[in-house]
Each structure stands twice: as structure tokens, then as C-alpha cells.
Predict the 3D structure of the following.
Amino acid sequence: MDFRVSLLLPLSLWLWGFVSSEQVSVCSSSPCKNGGTCMDLEDGYRCLCPQSPLAYAGEDCDSLYDVCTGHPCPSGWVCSRTPGYLNYTCHCEPGLKGLSCSVEGDECKSSPCLQPDFECIRISSGFGCQCQSGDGCEAELSVCSSRPCHNNGTCIENNGGYTCECQPGHLGLHCEEDVDECASSPCQNGAICLDRVNEYNCFCVPGFQGHHCEIDINECASRPCRHNSTCLNLMDHYACECLAGYTGVNCEVEIDECESDPCWHGGTCNDYIGFFTCSCMPGYEGPECEVDVDECQSQPCLNGGTCHDFVNSYQCDCINTGFEGSYCELDILECASQPCQNGATCLEGVGLYHCVCWPGYMGEHCEEDVDECATDPCLNGGECFERSNQSYYGKHKDFPEQFSYEEAAGFICRCPPGFEGEVCSININECMSQPCQNGGSCIDLVNSYLCHCLPGYSGIECATDIDECEDNPCENGGACEDGIADYICHCILGPDGTAWGGKNCSVELTGCQSHSCQNEAFCIPTYKSEVHGYLCRCRPGYFGPLCSTPTTFSFTSSIYLFINMSANSESPSDIARGPLTSVSLWFRTTLPDAILFYRGHQMEHLYLELSGGLLRVTFLIHEATSSFTMDAPQVDDGQWHKAEVLLQDSLELRLWHESCEAGVCLFRHPLRETVPVSLLPSFLQIYIGGVDEELVARPTKSFIGCLEDLQIDTKIVLPQDVAGLQSSGFQLGCERTEWCLSEPCSHGGQCIDLWADFRCHCSRPYEGRMCSYESPAATFGQDNSLSFATFTISNNLGVNLNLSFFIRTLKPSGLVFQISSPSDMFLTVYLKDGQLLVEAPSAAPVGPSGYLADGTKHFVMLSFQDGLAHAILLDREEALGPLVVTPVLAGSKINIGGLPDQESISNWGGHFKGCLQDVQLNHHQLQFFAHPANNSFLQEVYVGQPTNVVSGCVSDDTCKSEPCLNGGHCTVTWNDFNCSCPSDFTGKHCEEKVWCKSEPCPQGTTCVDVLSGYVCLANATFYEHNAVEFSTNATITRALHSLRLDFRTRDEDAVLLQAVEEIDSLLVAIHNSSLLVEIRSGNGVEGVNFLSEVSVSDGSWHELVLSMEEPSALSSRWHLCLDSSMNTTLDGNAGNLDFLKSKTIIILGENFTGCLGHADIGGVFLPLAMPNTYPQPEQFLQINSAEALLGCHGAEVCSPSPCQHGGSCQDLFNAFSCACSPGWEGLLCQNNIDDCKSGPCLHGECRDEVGDFQCECHKGYIGKRCQINVDDCIRHQCQNGGTCVDGVYSYSCKCPPQFTGPLCEWPFPPEQCGKNFTCLNGGKCISGPWGANCTCKPGYTGRKCQININECDPNPCQNGGTCQDSVNRYRCVCSASYTGERCDVDRGTPSAFFPFPFIEVVVPVACGCLLLLIIILVLMILTARKRRQSEGTYSPSQQEVAGARLEMDSVLKVPPEERLI
């Protein structure tokens, strides 16, 4: 007892401190709202509410002041006001006028406004009271404003006084008395009872727990001892016996043997369980690194050196030994100072050395260079260079890049041109290289040669072909090709389509102007021996000089043409000069398999056939077969195709098709040496479109379609000349009917074009020529009648069976199909629980996966082949495994849907109820009813004997029994019904009422329909002391084996949900910010315990779900899911929560500040909204009067938003977090993120932006992160089939073997000017590194200057001018209104006033008139002068008249003749 008292003493002191701490100032929590002033009182506080700009009232100033609540108006008058304002008006109530109130006279005379500073204002039907002094008016205080009721009691005014309505746990006039719940001593086992408001708490002594401390705790139940230690359960505590290496109360501490630093000299200690090891520093060893390693022990110093030991090293002292080095291993060398010069070798001696010089050097130290050029050894003017002169190296071509003493002796002679040799003594024969080309002869000269060229060549090396094209002999745009002493003109069509010919393309070819080519043949003009003519190039299907003979014929039935080539007049030698055997033809068909032609007989033949729409050629000779199929393309598409077979040294098959490369597909198969097949008489026998069946080893099909342009051994075969073509099955031309174009096949049938007809491939259950007939369905068990159909098998079926049918049912079990005899049962197909099963004697039932009893039509195919079963169901193919079927013999019976024997059918689930359609056994249809004639293509049918089988797929009248309740409307669906229920009912039969339809829940809550009722749900806010208690209504019948609770808080310690019933308990709490779960129920000894590692006190919503793993067990493990992210199985075992059904009190939100949301136990809700009466029998009812604040309300932490730069504030319940805009980070989004920090630009420079970055890419890269290498090959210029290889900002060309050059533009081997390369049209041939190239004359282009540049493309002529191209120039032919080189000068347009060219006429005429006038004036002046001279008239000058001296420049000069008179 002393021990317990000593433990309870500090607890009592803590409680005393807790009680005394409650006397702290109440106003410190700022309870007054809306700017109210808080005043501390002895037992609480009082709020002085503000009066302006709005007046507030209430204990906490939490509501706007309502002046009318004080009844300021006289009795019978109506008070009107605006909440928050002091002014009001009084109106006489309409029904009381003249009775208890009157509006006659001035109502303000009686001064009805009782409040000071209020003035009465008369209004219609009453008066108003208005404050006149601004802020001087005050709201009338109520008697409850002084908060006379203590302990949160509610003050209620009445008749000028008040009464206090106390909270649970308090009594008294002013609720000043606290009810002592501890008076009854509810706490057991020495626990201390702490009285609380309307409740109490038991503080248990160690070793006990429970609401009343009635449960003795097994301290070892939670397995506190770790590391396999033994737990000893003692009184009120436990003890752990630790294994070696561990210590601590719970053996949780591993003993650190390294704690005492046992390792010496800096060694590293490695701690293990019960021992340690030391990792020593280099130079130390021993268990504790206590031994210094003696590195001198191995005597490393040589040649008498002294070894000095150090830590992890040593040093050799080589003094007076004559050696040096780390080990005294190096002899001291006198040559170390390198006394020998010019790369000489120094030889060591005893106290001396000797220099061995390289050739070309001499002296004691090899310092003297011998001058080899002093004797002038080079002849014929050669220049001598010493090899020992290092300045020549890397600069003169005869010297290497690097100087070497090994080659420094001697000299080099640089010979003058024409001489060679070591001393330039040999005259070079320049003709040795045969420089003269094209047959020219060479004469050797000194440093030169002379070529004598053959006729037609010129140049120093006779390399220049005399260019006969230099004078442009070819006319009309013809391209000139130079030859040897000749040229060839390649003529082209003129711009107007004129054809040119002749030697110089000067002759207009007119042969096609009056040609007779027929059938759209192409005419080619000719000019031979100065005579015009033409040739006709025929279109496919025509032949002859004028293309007038048709070659097209068609096969319309399964026959063939036989052609005997033995009548051919060619001799074998004539045939041998060309391909030994060749057949080419055009064909057109839609048949995938057919013989095109066959040559030879059974032992020696060659034939071409269609196989699966592909071409296949077969060649047989000397019992050796060569055969191959052209993999693609398909040629049975009804289009014309050309094929050719060649047989010489190889077997070739060619097909002209647009999908082939270059338009031709070629397959070649080499042949071994054999007898020439052209000499075989059998190959002269040819079959077209088919062959005799005895000539081929396998069945073949005849060709039906069209052929044309049939050539055998390069000779055309005309259908008019073939015997037998007039017989039935052949016809000239090619008539074609597109059978499938009109889509004749119904119900999704596939139309197959057979050229002369068509066939429909029908989808089951449709059949007939055009798939228009549907095989009738049969209904079994209509209105639950017993129905079946029996068939008799007329032939032996054996053991390999194929059964297929359509099925539709809602009955999950029943017999579908059975084959039996009076003595044996061969095969049974039946439904069990909606799955199809197959059963045979002595074998377990097997079946495909899939549910069939869903009312939908399904196709089923069962196959039994060689003891194995397969099934196709729900579009899936499935192997069912081994299933041996007893051979089915003729006379056996087939029963479908049921059996005549009603007793034995129960083994397969009873009769089948539903529909069956198109039942087929081994491709024979089992007909329940007679089909119309000519509607079935099946080879054989079995006609059955139906019993109560209805034609068609007919439903039962399921609404006959009126299954819909509560006014629901019944609609028949197939063998089922559907009830259209009123809006307030639901369910299959409209039996369940929809309570929430009538909106029974108050505002702010959500109505949720539950079984037989509803519940009003809402989130609720708790403030530590407003816990809610629930208890069952004692009508819960379901098992309670799950729990869900949603919560949100920042409390580090709180109780979310707690319930205790004797030894059973449930606790969901928060302990040190972690989620704590404890369940003790059922026969579980230890119970279930869980403490989360992650914090849940983060202000976010959390969802907790608990469920039993085995709900039907007395106890099992429990599963916990937290926020859908944590899924774990809890330690320990516990039973279900059924103990909560026995009026157990369930407490929610004890000592909890935060929000609770969804709460249910076993699916029964604990509604946090205000108490309500619900109709459902299973409920948890609130038993205390505490009301939680609906909704989840915390502090306004996000108003105004603290987040910067557009960040979004997220309310986390009394805390916040900022969701930053892109580019910002930090608690308040105050820091700009350096988006370039991670180096996002792979091949470029990064520039940071707000929420983004910009990459300035290096050349050759693009993309957001410069991650894309630009494909420079997109616009590559690789020529001649070269493959472009992409690089970085460049590309290279990988050339085919026959081309080279940067762009694969040059042939390889390189072409040479004058040999195999010639420039046309006067181009100059130049040899380069890649071969020959042409420098073209102006006006030509192309590799060989073969293209005349069209200067008229694009047209340079403006204003509608016509461009005429010429060599390197053009000429514009302008319209009448324009002139100029490009028709760009406007001649001017004559107006209506000047119908002729005004400017062109008037200007010349005016100029002529002016010139004539000037001439006349000059003549008149000359005449006047002559007249003065002859008549002697005198006219005094101005100077003489004035008699004064005037400047002569200011007067007119007098003519000399006049002055002389």
C-alpha cells in the first residue's frame, strides 16, 4: 500500500496543478468577437460589445444587435429594424387599427422613444426613433449581458428578470455548484477519481486499466522485451531477461563494446553482438592494434644501406655506400650530367666516362658536326643538304618531320627537273609512265616528253577529244554528244510539241501527222534515208503494225486451251539464240487458285499458277523440282497484272506491280547444269488456263478470268488463230461484272467474287444464297413447362465430334444436349450454376470458363478430336483437356433441352429453360421445325420430334403475377421483368422506400439511405470538452466486425473513439501524434494493438478502416487501412465488436480538438448531426446532450492568403501550407526555383525563367531540352541510291559500291576524260579527285552538260508576253500594247479624243516646226545685214548719242560693218 501511495502522490500534485492552472485569465483566449472588449470577472468574463459602425450583442458579441427584442414599441404595435442599427420604427398592426392602437394625431407628442439621445420622427402609420448624437447612443443592455449564469449556463430573460439553465454537471441558482460525480467512489483498485464537469476520470495505479481501473494488465501481453529476450510478468510491472550483448529495460539497447575505445593507434572499432574487432591503421597490428609493425624486418635496404623504421614506412640511409635510391639499389652514374652531345652514348667507367658518337659527329664530347657537302657531291646542278642540319626537318620535303641522330650522317641531293638518283646522275625517262593517251606515241626529252597524237585527238597528252559539238551543230534544242571525229544529235520535242530529227535535228518529223494507229496506240515518228514514217506502240490488249488486232480473251468456265508449238518453223538453233523458254501474259481474275499456263508433261514441266492469291512457279526436270511462291503482292484483286517466266541458266519470275520496287518484282532461282529444255518435245505442248488432271500430282483449278498479250517464247499468240477458241467457255474481249459491288449478302455475310458468279459466306445463324434466311430458334420450358426434342442419328459419327449452337437462358442449371443409346450414354452437355459443363462416361466433367445464364444470346462451339476437348465461348478459344468419347453409332438418340425420363434428369440440373438456335452436329443441322425449301446449304439435316417446344425465342409473361409493389409499373423483359418504381421507392419489386427523396435532413447535413431507413450525416468540430456519447437501441442484429472513422486534427494526444464493456474494450486514439488502435474482445488473450509510424496530427483528413480477416471466427487477426496508402495486418487476435450491442457507451471526441466525419461500426452509422428519430431498426443513438458544431471549422489561416507569387493556400485546420505556382518554392512560395540547376539542356545553354527554363541549343539540336538531334537527312542530297547518315549539324552519304564522292555523285571507279566520259554541248572535261566532271557552257547544265537550261522557266516575260527559249538566252514576243526586253514598257493607250498615237505624232511635228522657225529667223537677220552694207545707212551708236563714256558690256555691240561707216 505504501508503494501505491508513493506513486499516487505525484499524480495528486499534478491534478492540483491542473486545477489551479484553470484560474488563468479567461480573456487571454480573446473570446469576444467582432471587436468586443473582454473584462475578467471572478467566475468568468464579460464582453462590452461595439456600437458602431454596427452594434453587436450576445455574450461573446457574436450576433448583430436587435433593438426590437427589448419591445420598445407600445402594445399592439409592430417594431421594424435593421439588425446592427439602433434606429427603429413602430407601426400599427393592420388588424388592430382603431382597437388597441391608433395613428390619429401626432404620436411623437407623448415622447414614445424611451432611450436617451433618441428623437421621435412621425411617419405614416406610426413613428420612428432615431439617434441624434452619433456615437453617443448606446444599445440597451439586457439583464443577461452581465453573464450572471456561471459554468456556461444559459441566461434566459423573462419579465424583466432571468433564469439560468445549467449545463449537465452543475446546479444552483446561478449554476455555481459543481455536481461531484466522484461521490459514489466509482474508481476501483485504489485509483484516484478526478471530478469533471458532468463526468469523472479514474487515474489508475500502475498495473490496472479500464474505465473504472477494474482490469489487471498483463504487462507482457504487448511483448515489450526485444531481441528474443524473456518477459517476466510481475506485480504492476514486468522485467526482461536479456541475451548476451543486449541491455536496457526492454533489452532494446545493444551493448556497444566499442564505447571504451579499445583499439589503439587510431584503429577503427567494429561492434558485434557480444564482442568487437579492430581495423588497424596501416603500420599497426594485433587484436587491439597495439603492435607497431617493423618494416625493416625484411631488410629492404641493399648494398649495405642502413634501415630506419617508421610508422607504416621505413627509410634507407645510403651514405658512403656508393649507391642511391629508395633501396640503395642505384649505382651513382658519372654520365648522369649528360656530358656527351648530339645524342652520343655515354659509357660509364671507374671515375670516368667515354662518349660514343653517331656517324657524322666527332670530338671528345661529339660536339663537332662533319660537313659532308664540302666536296660538292651532287651532279648535274643538284643542291646538297646535310642530314645533320636540324633546321631542314619539318620544312624541306626530302626530310622527315622529326630529326633523328641515327639518320644524321650523310647528305641528300635535291636534283634539278629531269634527273634523279642519289647524286642526280640518272636522266629520267618521262615516257615510262605512258603519258600519251588514246594511242599517242611518246618521245622522251630532258625533263619533258612529246606526244604524237592519232587523228581525232589533241592536247599535250592526246587526252582531248576534238569536240565536234563545240560549234553547236544540233538545232531545235537537240543535245549534242561528241564522238571521235563525229557527233550525234539527241533530238527532243519542241515547246509546241514538234518532233525533230535528222543529223542536226533540223528536220521536222511529220510521219505521225497522218498516222493510222488504232485503239489509242502511241505514234512514234521515224526518219530513215530521208523518208518520213512512223511506228505504232500498242496499248496492252492490242497487236499489229497499226495495233488493230485485239489480244484479249476470257475463260468463263472450267476449260483450257491447248497449243501445240511443234508446227513452229523455227529450228532448235534459232531458239537457242534467245531465252530457252519464256512465257509472258497479262491476266485479270478474282479467283485465288488457278492454273495460268502449263508446259510439258508429267515428268518434265513448267507451270505458273495462282496459289492463295499469290503467283507460284514450278519447274520439274530429271526428277529435280524447283518451285517458289512470290510472297507479295496479291494479284486476285480483279485488276490487270503482267507476269513473265524466263528459263535459261536460272528460273526467273517477274511481276509488274505498283507495289514492287521500280514497278517490277523479280525472283530468280539458279538451276544446275542440265539438258537444254528447248530441245525437249514436251515443252512444245502448252496448256493455257488449266491442264489435264493426270499431268499434275495434286488437284488444280482452272482459270476463270481474262488474258491478253500472251507471248510464248517471245512470239505473240493471237486468240483468233487458236483452234478451239470458238467453243463454249471462251470468248473474245473481257466482260466483267462487279458482283459484290451491290453488297448482295445480307446480315453481315461476306461476298466472295467468283468472277463468273458470287458466293455469300454467311454468319450463323443465317443461311441461304444471300444469307437472308435465319435459322429459327426454339423455346424450351415456356411458362415452366417440361419440353424437349429427340433426334435419331442415321449414320455412324465415331469419336470425333463437333457440336455448335446458340444459347440464351436465365436458368443457371439444366440439360442442354445428350447423345445416348438404350445401353450407353455417350456425351452430355449441361449447365450448372451458369457454367457450361461437358460429361462423358468414366471422366470428370469439364467446361469452359464464362457465365451463360445472363439472358444474352451466346455462341458455343465444342470440339472433340482424338481424345482432346476444345471450346469456343465468349469469343475465347479454350482447351478443356483430355475427354474420351465413346464411338457414336447409327441409331443413337439425341435429346435436347430435357429427357423423356423425368426422374433421371435431376442429375443434370433439370430441364433446360430458354432458347436454342442453329444446333449443328458435325456440320449437320438439327432442325426442331421443318425449314422452307431451298434455304439450307447443309449436306444433311436431322429432323427432330419436339415436345412442348415453341417456335421462336419467346418470353414468359413475367408480369402476370403483378410482382411490382407500391404502384410500380411492370414491363416484361425476356423471361424476367422490370419495375418502374415511384420516385420514393426502389428495389427489384419497388419494395424499398427511398427516404432521402423527401429531404428529411436539416440544412447542412447529408441524407444517406440505409436499410429500411436513412441517416443524416455531417462533419462536426470538437473543442476538447464536447465529447458525444452513443449507445445502441438494442435492435442491432448484424455482426459488428468492421469500423470506419474519418478525422482531422492537430492534437498530439486525444481519444477519437472509446468503448469499454467489462473485459472487452475498443480504443482509437492519437498518442504522440501517431494513431493508436487497441481491440480486446472475444477469446483473444493478447488483443489487437497498433501504433502507426507516421504522424496523423497534420491537420489533414484521414480515413481509418478496420475489419476482421475472418468475420465468422470467434477471434482472428484484424486488417487496418489508413488513407488507402497503408494496408497492414495488426499484431494479435481479437473477436468482433458485438459487445457494443449491449448498451455499451461509445464515446467520440474525448479531450479532442478537431473534426470528425464519417463514423460507422459494422455499417451502422454514428451520426454526428443533431439527434433525430430514424425509422430503421438498427441504430446507434446519442445518449448525452452535447451538440457538436456542424461543419469543420478552424482558424481563418488563409484569410488573407499568406502565400506569395500566386501560391494557393491550403487550410490544414489551424495551420496552412502553400501550393506554389510553377517556378516558386519555400514555405510561403517566396523563393524562385532555379530551373536550370538540374542542367536540363542536354546540348545547349540554359536560361532560367519563372516556372520554366529556355534552352539555347547548339547547332544541330532542337527540342525543349535540346535533346533532339536534327535529322539533317530530311533534305539530304545523296544521289544514286546513297544512304544518308545523320550527324550533328551535318550528314554524310554512304554510297553504293558503284558510286563515290561526298554526295555519291561520281561513278566508281572514277571516270576519266576522253576514255569513258564525254562532255556534251561544248562542255569542258576536267579531271578531279572523284573522277571526270564537266564545266558547261552558258545555257547548259547537267553532269554531262546534256540539259539545255530553259531560260523561260519561270517565264520572265511580263504583261502576257510569250517566252521563246534559246541557248543561254530568251526572247519575249510582246503584245501590241507593250514593248521592251521583258515586255515591261507600256506603249500607251489611245484615248477617245485622240484616236491616233498623239505623243508619237505631235512631238515630232512640233520639233520640226520649231526648227523651221529658227531657220527662217536666221535668214532674215542675214538679209538685214546685207541690206545695211549695200545701202550705206547710218545709225549713230548709243555712245555717240549720249556723248558720254559707257561700259561696252552694258550696251549692245554694234556690228563692225556699222562702225566703219
